[in-house]
Write a structure and sequence with these properties.
With 369 residues, the protein is of the alpha+beta class. The strands form 4 sheets. A 6-stranded antiparallel sheet has the order 1-2-3-4-5-6, with helices on one face. α5 packs across α8. The N terminus is likely disordered.
Length: 369
């Protein structure tokens, strides 16, 4: 039989549990599926359990995940010159566990990030047909565990409500109309883990490509105002203060106010140097395209004969005054998988960059001998 004294006791017990939960501010631990976030911006990242099966488990974003609105502890960033990926747009974010920081490791070197750091990059298209809508294709994670960087790739569903871990690689058709009214159709390549490793490896270890001081020393429009990105990383607690103030900074490749040579160098640095540098995938080639190396014409390939017979009419990697005889221009202009450069990360020609390279080469004085 029901006793009137039971209800007050039950209500008191329930109230005590609510108060106790409200006062709990510890970060989530244990199995994410069983945990309940004590606050809206509690990112879930357990090194023993990652990568999780679904992107939503990490709780990097607030509201509908497709809106890509980061929680307070997830910081957006953007390199000054971006890597070309078949004209895809990208959202980039960084997250680190409480109490740890990255350290400056040189203008041209990746910030030395702590275990638990996560780099988040979402690839999407606007103007996707037939509905002229936004479509998110994938979100790639690079996370550091036990001193090593590891990959996780999440492929979004058609409903744009969730993304699922998939490192097997696949292709998906995309047709979109860009802001200039040009409609393109491609078979977008979602990379397999081995493809990620090809572009990101240094010797046999994996490494990020973009977050270097030379690429981040610029202003970014944050939700609380415009600020230099390195300054913001320090304020966020993600970068140890005291880095140099006179950083040798790249330019934006498409900034027409900058010297053409600097724009080309910045483009080659971001799109080519991750392979054409010592200990990288194409280190056996003579070019050295990193920003701190490619001011040297020899490292650019100027008047350097190519070391392969792909096309005999290409007399030099860069033939001064003659883009038509330059292997660099030839490879960038090709969609042939056996010829094109970069060999991964694109399936169509970046025509604006090819035109810039042609102008750069054709305006060089004094032809090669």
């Amino acid at each position: 039989m029901y006793s009137p004294s039971v209800r007050p006791l039950a209500l008191f017990t329930l109230l005590a549990l609510v108060v106790l939960a409200a006062c709990t501010k510890e970060p989530l631990t244990g199995t994410p599926d069983e945990a309940v976030a004590p606050e809206a911006d509690a990112v879930v990242f357990d090194p023993a359990l990652v990568p999780y099966p679904t992107l939503s488990t990490y709780r990097f974003f607030k509201g509908p995940m497709a809106q890509q609105r980061p929680v307070a502890s997830v910081l957006p960033y953007e390199p000054i010159t971006a890597l070309f990926t078949d004209y895809a747009h990208k959202f980039r974010f960084v997250w680190m566990p409480p109490g740890v920081q990255a350290t400056y490791n040189g203008d041209h070197d990746i910030l030395d990030m702590p275990d638990g750091a996560v780099l988040i990059k979402t690839f999407y298209y606007d103007g996707v047909q037939p509905g002229n809508t936004r479509r998110i294709i994938e979100t790639r994670l690079l996370f550091k565990r036990n001193g090593q960087w590891e990959f996780a790739d999440y492929v979004w569903n058609a409903e744009q409500t969730e993304a699922y871990l998939d490192l097997s690689g696949s292709n998906t058709p995309v047709t979109w109309t860009d802001e200039n009214g040009v409609t393109r159709s491609i078979s977008y390549r979602i990379p397999a883990e081995a493809e990620c490793q090809t572009c990101h490896k240094v010797a046999e270890a994996s490494m990020p490509i973009g977050p270097k001081p030379q690429n981040l020393n610029s202003d970014h429009a944050y939700s609380d105002g415009v600020k230099n990105q390195l300054v913001k990383w320090v304020e966020q607690g993600y970068l140890q203060p005291g880095y140099p103030k006179n950083i040798n900074t790249v330019v934006a490749w498409d900034d027409m106010t900058k010297p053409l040579d600097d724009r080309v160098r910045a483009y080659l640095d971001m799109n080519c140097a991750h392979c054409h540098t010592d200990l990288r995938h194409c280190s056996y080639r003579p070019m050295r395209f990193a920003w701190n190396e490619n001011a040297d014409p020899v490292n650019q390939g100027v008047c350097v004969p190519p070391d392969d017979p792909i096309e005999p009419s290409m007399t030099y990697i860069v033939a001064r005054g003659n883009a038509a005889r330059s292997m660099l221009h030839f490879r960038m202009s090709s969609n042939d998988e056996a010829v094109r450069m970069p060999l991964m990360g694109r399936t169509i020609v970046h025509q604006e960059a090819v035109d810039m390279i042609a102008t750069w080469i054709n305006t060089m004085p004094v032809p090669c001998n």
